[in-house]
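Ligand-bound model needed. heme C.
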Amino acid sequence: MGSYLNNSFFACGLILLFCLGCQEKAEQKDTEVDAKPELVMYQPSEMANLMNAMYAYNLQLKQQIIDGEVPASMPLDLMKLHSAEMSNGHQRTAVWNNFVNVFIESQQSVVDTLSNIQLKERYNAAINNCLACHKTECTGPIPKIKKLLIQ
Ligand code: HEC
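Prediction:
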């Protein structure tokens, strides 16, 4: 009887150790997942979505211009720049207001087929207006936007 008790005591101890081991591993996994909650939870603002659409549109314009095509449509609703919600920390500053209309005009002029200014020049002017606002309002994407310029 005594040895049976000892044995089961021993067995319990083993099981307990095993379980503690599992828990430790499970906890390690938890912290690994916890390490990048922002990637999972990141919700782009309405303005960030609009900016990314502007980026994608201009990337496509750049290719068209390099291929010798004449782009004639501007599918983005740029008036949303005046109303789109921005992410925390960003707001329409005086600098923003100075740049936004100049930018809209230059972006629209890229598809102005009647303009007598060279297409590449109009396109680069629009991209330089992206950069002008970004220099103070949101510096992060500047290297990415610079790649849109046609050399
Ligand atoms: C009038 C100022 C202004 C102009 C013009 C402007 N931007 Fe932005 N851009 C911002 C601000 C402010 C943000 C941050 C928005 C937010 O986080 O809500 C931003 C964010 C971005 C982002 C990051 C989006 C993200 O995922 O967080 C990209 C990329 C971007 N802009 C590209 C462009 C491109 C390309 C152009 C021109 C075609 C442009 N921007 C024109 C002010 C501007």
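The pocket of heme C is lined by residues 44-45, 47-48, 51-52, 54-55, 58, 86-87, 90, 96, 99-100, 103, 129-130, 133-134, 137-138, 141, 144-145 (CB under 6 Å).
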